[in-house]
From TrEMBL:
Residues 486-495 have a biased composition (Basic and acidic residues). It comes from Tersicoccus solisilvae. Residues 289-309, 451-471, 528-540 have a biased composition (Pro residues). This is Uncharacterized protein. Residues 257-321, 444-495, 512-546 are annotated as: Disordered.
Length: 546
């Protein structure tokens, strides 16, 4: 039995199995040859001698040597010497999975390369897992793992770090499991995902920036696009949702002639606006004016002008061979670029460019039609402008005539207000003078009235009270002579008399208060004069129009 030895490293990418596929095809070819020889024996005539089987050369054993891909080289170099101050513990691990909560990969999220290592940073342990995915899949895998982080392995709280974190879409996931707090900071560059695991108390953002500062420059020469997006995943024909790769191509057509107005004169687009200002008729007045305001005329509006020229170039998307690949590219993980049908791509490119030129030509024809219609509309606009300008001039004349009448009525109303103010002032003066005369007459009458005479009040002398009897046991000593004591209502006790004298004193004024009455000055003043009443402006309207 023939034997073929092939040493191969297994990868997820179907292109990695090219050697195995070749061996299978060789085996199929050998089996087919045997079948054909057997068929020849079956269809040979019975009398013919049996054919002599050709000698089949023995298969040659070949050994395929595998060279590390750029992804292997970059991740190995980065994790071997991550940054100053990082002390690695042990050897690099191969095929490691992502830490929780990113440890629940969905279908199609297996990495092509996965390395891990443990370190001591600032005296505390951390671990790093770096994974490289096939062309264009990094961003999509990152979004898939982030969406599942809330429920994977018990879930975690995920915080978007934005511009403060490293790489693309940095996130910090924290969780507490069985009393142990953990934190994982993840980020991406192209198709490479990095997971830095530690505790919430460690400065993981700083550690991640230090590590990313080493990873980024090493990816530069071998990763086509470190800022790839989820949309780039559609460029891979090995994944669902494939969209053929396209590039931008600029197509051009010759410029077309600009239609001229029907008059044959050459004009540029847009044509000028022939009305510099609108008519502004004055509003109605509450007094007669003349002449009357003309009937309103609608202001013609200039037509909307098309662009000065149609586009003669446009950018179209045309199919092309995707030799580099999305994300970090095909070669980054050892993939082979998809086979391209050069003739088919050229034909498709031609069709796309011809379609773009056809659209430009259609747009140019539509523009010419639009320009022709514009000149027709502009001619109608030009025709309507003189009538409107005549209306505007008539309005200006009427406004001027009404302004003169406005001035007359303004002066009249000023004079009328002054006249009415003088009339009111005279009436107020006369009212105050009449009141002053009435008040003065009342005061004079009060002062001239006779004064009433006072009548004396009678005095009462109370009966004497009995004298106290002297005490026999003691000799009465003479008491001091008390001073007179005042009583209420003018009563006075005299010490040498038992009588109570009550005196009534009447205060009789010598003259009445406020008398003689003062004569108010207003009684000797003349009322203010009243000017002549103003005459309203004459009615400017003809007699027949009043």
């Amino acid at each position: 039995m023939s034997r073929m030895l092939i040493s191969q490293r297994v990868r997820d990418d179907p292109r990695r199995t090219v050697l195995v596929a070749t061996a299978v095809l060789v085996a199929i070819g050998l089996i087919g040859s045997a079948l054909v020889a057997l068929a020849g024996l079956l269809v040979s005539p019975p009398s013919a001698p049996p054919a002599v089987a050709a000698t089949t050369p023995a298969p040659t054993a070949r050994t395929a040597t595998w060279t590390d891909t750029p992804a292997d080289q970059v991740l190995t170099a980065t994790l071997s010497a991550p940054s100053g101050g990082w002390a690695r513990s042990g050897e690099l691990g191969h095929g490691a999975g992502a830490p929780a909560p990113y440890s629940c990969p969905a279908e199609g999220t297996s990495p092509a390369v996965s390395l891990s290592a443990a370190y001591t940073v600032d005296g505390a342990p951390v671990s790093v897992t770096a994974q490289a995915f096939t062309a264009g899949q990094g961003a999509k895998v990152q979004d898939t793992l982030a969406a599942a982080a809330g429920s994977c392995a018990g879930g975690a709280a995920v915080q978007e770090l934005g511009d403060t974190g490293p790489g693309e879409s940095p996130r910090l996931a924290t969780a507490s499991r069985s009393g142990v707090d953990s934190a994982v900071l993840s980020w991406r560059r192209g198709d490479v995902l990095v997971f830095l695991a530690g505790t919430p108390t460690q400065d993981l953002p700083r550690y991640a920036r230090d590590l990313d500062g080493v990873l980024g420059p090493r990816l530069g020469p071998v990763c086509a696009d470190q800022d790839a997006t989820t949309a780039d995943a559609a460029r891979s024909p090995y994944r669902p949702g494939y969209l053929p790769y396209t590039v931008a191509s600029t197509v051009r057509i010759p410029a077309v002639a600009t239609p001229s107005p029907g008059t044959g004169t050459s004009r540029s687009l847009p044509a000028p606006n022939l009305i510099d200002r609108s008519a502004a008729p004055s509003g109605p007045r509450d007094y007669p004016v003349w002449p009357p305001m003309p009937a309103p005329v609608a202001e013609p509006a200039p037509p909307q002008a098309p662009s000065a020229s149609p586009p003669t170039s446009a950018e179209v998307r045309v199919p092309a061979a995707d030799t580099t690949g999305p994300g970090c590219g095909w070669a980054f993980t050892g993939m082979k670029a998809p086979a391209a049908d050069a003739a088919g791509l050229a034909a498709a490119r031609t069709r796309a460019e011809n379609a773009g030129r056809a659209r430009l030509q259609a747009a140019s024809r539509a523009w010419q039609t639009e320009v022709t219609r514009y000149w027709t509309d502009y001619a109608a606009y030009e025709k309507a402008v003189p009538g409107y300008l005549a209306y505007r001039n008539a309005v200006d004349s009427v406004n001027a005539a009404w302004a003169a009448i406005d001035g007359q009525w303004a002066r009249y109303r000023t004079d009328l207000a002054a006249y009415e103010g003088a009339v009111a002032a005279r009436a107020d003066f006369l009212a105050r003078k009449a009141k002053a005369a009435s008040d003065y007459a009342a005061e004079v009458k009060r002062c001239e009235a006779p004064q009433p005479k006072p009548s004396p009040s009678p005095s009462k002398k109370p009966s004497p009270s009995p004298s106290p009897s002297p005490s026999p046991s003691k000799k009465a000593s003479p008491a001091p002579k008390p001073s007179p004591t005042k009583k209420a209502d003018g009563a006075v006790f005299r010490p040498d008399d038992t009588s109570l004298v009550i005196a009534t004193v009447m205060n009789v004024p010598l003259a009445r208060e406020g008398c003689p009455a003062d004569r108010p000055d207003i009684l000797d003043q003349d009322p203010p004069a009243i000017p002549s009443a103003p005459t309203p402006p004459a009615d400017p309207r003809p007699v027949g129009a009043r």
